[in-house]
Each structure stands twice: as structure tokens, then as C-alpha cells.
Amino acid sequence: MDNISIKVENLEKTFGEGESRVEVIKGASFEVNKGELVALIAPSGAGKSTLLMMIGCVLEPTSGKIWLGEELVYDKKWLTKDARKIRREKLGFIFQAHYLIPFLNVLDNVSLLPLTSSEKEEVVRDRSKDILRFLGLGEKFNAKPSELSGGQNQRVAIARALANQPQIILADEPTAALDIERAHSVVKMLKEVTKTQGVSIIMVTHDERLLGYCDKILKIVAGKVETSHVTEGEVV
Amino acid sequence: MINLAYKDIQHTFSKFVITAMGVGMLLGIVLIMIGVYRGMVEDAKVLLNDVNADVWVVQQYTLGPFAESSRLYQDLQDSIKVIEGVDKAAALTFQGMQLFDKQGHAVRVYTVGYDPRGDFQIIPDSALIEGRVLRESHYEMVVTDKTGFALGEKIKVGRNIFTVVGITQGTVSSGGDPIVYVSLKDAQIMQFSYSNPRIRNDRARGLESKDSQLVNVVVATLKPGYAADQVAQKMERWKHLTVYSQAEQIQILSKNVIERSSKQIGLFTLILVLVSSIIIGLIIYTMTLEKIKEISIMKLIGIPNFLITKMIIQETILLGLIAFVFGNLFAQLIYSNFPKRVLLEWPDSFTLLAVIIVTSFLSSLIGVYKVLKADPAQAIGG
Ligand SMILES: Nc1ncnc2c1ncn2[C@@H]1O[C@H](COP(=O)(O)OP(=O)(O)O)[C@@H](O)[C@H]1O
Ligand SMILES: [Mg+2]
Fold first, then answer.
1. pLDDT tens digits for A219-230?
2. Domain for residue B210, yes or no?
3. Is residue B23 domain-shared with residue B165, that is, in the same domain?
4. pTM here?
5. What is the mean pLDDT of residues B313-341?
6. In 10 A of CB B100, how many CB atoms?
7. Does A45 contact ligand 1 (Cβ within 6 A)?
């Protein structure tokens, strides 16, 4: 259990009632280890985002269990009143669009969340700058999102997801809006983050060319999750 | 900590300021409305205070001379003067009229007739800004500057031509119309004399008109040691008149002349304040809706609610404050262009400020409600 960062057991999610009832996830079980970069793949509409949002404590499952690290957070119901606190302390999010706050500059976008913690402002600012430099944005602290390219903004979004030092990053199609070169460089960065910081990342992707970077592949098939391992950059 | 309201406003500064200016104009109008009311109350008392009599003698059972019409014989002035305790007495006429300027435009005025050689000098020195007060008993006129007439200008009234010999400032009737002063004799001709055919007609009927001996009120001051009530009682008993003290006269004015108008203006002001609040509320609502995506994202990544609601509340109150400043500027800029007196007073302004702070806080709650309701799961949809 020590090495496990996400564990999901018999997770189910149905939307709607009666006629319009849709069972999207029908008993998914899987584990993600610390420091792993995991790909989540399935055709569109299969429930990738739904699964990710349940792990992210944003969407309430219908039944099952979710552990984040050691903590059992969901067991037929949320075990915490403040799901946002879990998100704030354990999770980082990256989406297809960068969703940066347009009126904040790059540095403020990245430091906003950790600044709400009890950490010293200086410490947060310094760490945020380090992360931005690491992602090649050392010159852009004061730029607004509107002044940056799509790839740069996506890297800022990654920096934001990292800034509060989460154990887990949930990335929903983070490269879908990027060209293939930038997609490769973004995934390389995510890979590096998992190795250097011990963060676990679940990344939804449609692009098979990116699977080589991943340690593990989760595939949604008929509402259940199949796990396959990747060795030496080869999909098994 | 990052102040989100500050950053957001900085980002959309000109839009924010223009919005605040718009709301400010609305608040400016609210201030003007209150100023109109204050001006009206102030105006109502100007003439009363200028005359500055202790007692006002009017036709029996009337609320004259301002709230109801009143007619007395001019010679009453002499019998009043000999009543014990009376110091000075004067007969006066008051009459709303229309004069014409050189271009032939109508000018609404309120004509006050008094005897230039009488006991009362009812044009206060402090009000006279040019020329002199009336001296002759005919065809002279002192006008309020707002009438637009110039010193020396000739003004035709009926068959007679008057010359402007003096100009006053701030002298208005209880209704706010600018005053022109003429001699009592001229005023009586204007108010009470009939055309020649009418006089001939009346004579044929055996009626002899004595109307030109009429006035509207006789005012008097008292000698020291005499109380207005007592002297008034004496006059009423002997002469079949109604007599008011200065204080009663002010009361009559505020009851009969000001009260209804003030209700009218009060209601209007209330509606304006309400409309302004609704508009502020709508602005905040749209400002929040515009940011709802960012707000959902902030909620999703784990930003606590209070940080987001603080942004909304601060922005709303700042909007209110800037609008308030613009409102005052706007009101100060335009108030002197109004034909009647507009009296802008700081206490009113600060009351409005308090109202704005409360209403903008309340309207910000609409935004806060939107924030609390925003679903983080919706943030990444679409
Ligand atoms: N709020 C919702 N209400 C009803 N159905 C939903 C809702 N969210 C998602 N779904 C349905 O769940 C299924 C999975 O959606 P999603 O997780 O977004 O798929 P993916 O991310 O794999 O493309 C879809 O059929 C979608 O229509
Ligand atoms: Mg999806």
C-alpha cells in the first residue's frame, strides 16, 4: 500500500434516471503507483473525463471506493465534507484548454492556489518561479495568458498544477490542442515531473504516439478499466 | 496574497471605469433630485425671510397670501399701525406674471409690490448686486438676475414701460420663480385694474370699482416686549381678519406648498435609488457571469470560496464608490444649469453614499450566490 497513490475499487457512475439513465462506468478497479505516468485511453464518450473527475473529487460516483494515497476519500459517499480541501492539498489539474485566469499574469496564475495555504508568500513565489523556469518560462513571469502562445499557456497550466506540490496530477487531454512537437515536449515534461518529484499522473490522450512515455495504460472497455503495462517504451 | 478584485479591475480598467461613470450619472441625477427638493424648501422661505415681518395680516379665513389668495383694503395698513405694540406696517402685493424679453420670449416672474417710501425695505441689501432699490412710485423695476433682464432695460407691461433700476440675486417666490419688484401703485394697477371697456361696463351697471385700493397682505413688525400671538389676537377680534405670525406663515408654506411636492420628489428619488440598485445588481450579475468559467476553474483547482466572493464584493463596493464620486462630479457640474434652485448638500451626499454601500453590498450577494452555485464539474465542459 505504501507505494500506491491512487486506488479505485468497483467504481460506478450512472447519469440520469429512468429513460435517460446512462451507465458510464460499471465497476472500474485499478491502481496507480507513486511516480507513475499513466495513460487513460478509450474512444470519445467512453467516460474518461467522468472517471478523472470522480478521482478528482469533483464528480460524485454512484458507488465504489476511491483512495488517494493512504486516505479513503469515497466509500459509497464522500468521507470528507470539504472535497475542495483534498483537491487543494493532493491534486493538480490540467485540461485540454489551459483555463488560466485571464486577468492574472503567469506568476500569479501559478502561485494563486498555494498562496491560500499557510506557506510563506516568498517560499511560494520562489517555488513557482523555479517551476516556471523548469518549464522554460523563466522570461514570462509578468506576461498575461493572452500574450502567450497555446503551447506556452499549456506549460503555465502544468506549472499551476505543480505549484501546490500535489501527489497526483489529473490531466484530461493536455496535448489535444497542441501540434505533435509540442505534444511530445509537454509529455516529456510530465514524464520528468513524475521521475523527479514522485508525482503520479493520469493523462487522458487519444494520441498513440505519446503512449511510449507512459509506465502504464488504463483502457476503458465497456465501462470497466483494463490495465496494461509498458516496458522500454513498448506497449505490451 | 493576490487581490483578485484589484487584478481583475486592472485588467479591464477602462470598461470598469466607464461602467462606474454610467452608474455615477444615475447617482448624479439622484443627487440633483434631492438638491431640487432642498432648493425648493430653501426657496419657499426666501421671500418670507426677506420680508421678515412679525405678523402677516390676511383676508379672513384664508391661508394667504401664498397658499391661498387674499385681498385686503390698503388703508388697513394705517389702522394696523396704530394698534398697540405694532412698530411698522406695510401693505404688499404678490402676483405671478409673465413678462417678455427683447426677443419676445416669455419670462415667468413673481411680482412683489411695495411702497418704496414705506416702512418696509423688503429688498435685502445683501441680495442687491447691481443698481439700486426702487425710488420712484412709478415705472421702476428691480429684477432678479435669473430673469435675464439687464440694468437699464425697458420692459413693457400692459400700456406702461418700466425701467430696470436694480438687479438682485437669489430672490425667488415660494414656488421658485424669480421675483421682480415694482412699486405698490404699479402693482395694484397690474393686479386689480380692469381694461377701459370693463370699467365702462361696470359703471353702466352702477358698480364703482375700488379694486385698485386692494392689496394681498399687510405685514407688521412689533415693538420690543410684545408677543406676536397677543397682538394677532387683538387684530383678529377687531378687524375681522386672519393674522399669522412669521412662524405660522412658514408652517403654512411647508404644509401646503412644500409637503406634496416633497412627497412627489421623495417618491421619485426613491424610485431612482431603486433603479440604480437594480442596475448595480445587474452589472454585478453580468460581471460575475462573464467570469463564471474562471470562477468554476478556481473552485475546481481548490481555491476557497471566500477568496472568490471577496473579489465579487470588493469589486461591487468599489464600483459603488467610484460611481458615487462620478455622481458627485456630475451633479456639481450640471446643477447650476437648472432653472430653479438646486441645493447640493454634503450630508445628503453622504447619506446616499451609505445607501450605495449597503445596496452594492446587497447586489454583490447576487454575484456571491452565483459563485457558490457554480459547479466546478461544469468548468471543463464544452
Ligand atoms: N452531466 C452529465 N449528465 C449526463 N450524461 C453525462 C454527463 N456527463 C457525461 N455524460 C455522459 O457520460 C458519457 C461519458 O462522458 P465523458 O466522460 O465526457 O467521455 P470522454 O471524456 O471519454 O469523451 C457520455 O456519454 C456523456 O454523454
Ligand atoms: Mg473527455
1. 999 999 999 987
2. yes
3. no
4. 0.79
5. 92
6. 12
7. yes
